């Protein structure tokens, strides 16, 4: 469940920031870059702040165990 939430939040942030960058102000593209860099960092270090926050909220992984908490 946790991974689905993380992907949904990241995808929503990218779509929202691209939309805002296109229609409102081009500075919103920095948010897109930040989300992309955060995804790259988490793939290299295997550490994700949102995953830790969701774990503290009691949301577990698909298999029912919380391996990173």
TrEMBL record:
Q: Quick one: signal sequence residues? A: none
Q: What is this protein called?
A: DUF2892 domain-containing protein
Question: Which Pfam families does this one have?
Answer: YgaP-like_TM
Domain Inner membrane protein YgaP-like transmembrane spans what residues?
3-56
Transmembrane keyword on record? yes
What stretches pass through the bilayer? 5-23, 29-49
Keyword entries, A-Z: Membrane, Transmembrane, Transmembrane helix
Asked if the Swiss-Prot or TrEMBL record annotates the protein with the keyword Cell membrane, the reply is no
